[in-house]
Specification:
mainly alpha, about 260 residues
């Protein structure tokens, strides 16, 4: 096992994360006020930066829960600084999820903090560590949808409302995909400690391919339809219409235009 000593720098918020949060704040302000000459560019930067912030918080939740469960090595690895460059696979945790947002408007689960599970005792603690990440997405989704289900949209500019709706879509899809009990995803990590050794041993080889299997299934039209029907139902229950999320995605992709959204929202 890795030994680790606590240092103040291990928990100091990274300037990289501060920079990403600053971009979120500035572009959010530009989207709200209409300051940007091209609103779509501001929405693109706002949603992308906010999405990366949520990915960092997702991984931080895993690491922080692991720390309090007994894995003191997470500090020395830089996981408590919210710096995405410290993750085991920055490509899988940050770059790939952003690419999937741009291509398909779906919240790809990131994930790459290495937890030394041997330091942790108790099945409940192992399950909680795995659940902490997607629960952060749930919390983020609650914040994004609050103006809708609180009926507090008076005075909220159209572009900002659409950006929040699309960001909420990303958080809900990320939470649901992460909670799937598929090897390699957090949902499987929640139930894994409760499975027999033989079952875990048989399933273990599938872990590197779990996410690929999920997305391969989502390419099947019938599966894709059911998945997004569930997403739409959840968002409608939170006060967000299909039109809001659709036009939010179209505004996010500023390099293309949809006349329907420009006059219909």
């Amino acid at each position: 096992m890795t030994t680790a000593t606590a240092r103040p720098s291990d928990r100091r918020i990274s300037p990289v994360f501060v920079g990403i949060a600053a971009v979120t704040a500035v572009t959010g302000w530009a989207t709200w006020t209409g300051f940007a000459e091209q609103p779509g560019v501001a929405v693109f930067l706002f949603v992308t930066a906010a999405w990366i912030v949520s990915l960092c918080l997702h991984e931080y939740a895993h690491a922080r829960t692991a720390l309090h469960s007994g894995d003191i090595s997470v500090g020395a690895k830089g996981y408590l600084t919210l710096n995405p460059l410290k993750y085991t696979h920055a490509l899988l945790s940050i770059v790939l999820p952003v690419v999937f947002v741009i291509m398909g408007g779906i919240g790809l689960p990131g994930g790459a903090v290495f937890i030394e599970r041997g330091r942790i005792r108790g099945r409940w603690r192992h399950s909680l560590i795995s659940a902490a990440g997607p629960l952060t997405n749930v919390l983020f989704a609650a914040v994004c949808t609050a103006p809708f289900w609180l009926d507090a949209l008076d005075g909220v500019p159209r572009d900002f409302r659409l950006a929040l709706a699309f960001l909420a879509l990303l958080q809900v899809t990320a939470a649901i995909l992460n909670f799937l009990p598929v090897p390699g995803l957090d949902g499987y990590g929640v139930i894994e400690p409760w499975l027999s050794y033989n079952v875990r041993r048989q399933v273990e080889p599938l872990a590197p391919f779990g996410l690929l299997i999920v997305f391969a299934l989502l390419w099947i039209p019938s599966v894709n339809g059911v998945f997004f029907d569930v997403i739409d139902a959840i968002l409608r229950g939170l006060g967000i219409s299909d039109l809001d999320t659709y036009c939010g995605f179209e505004l996010f992709r500023f390099w293309q235009t949809d006349e329907f959204c420009s006059v219909g929202s």
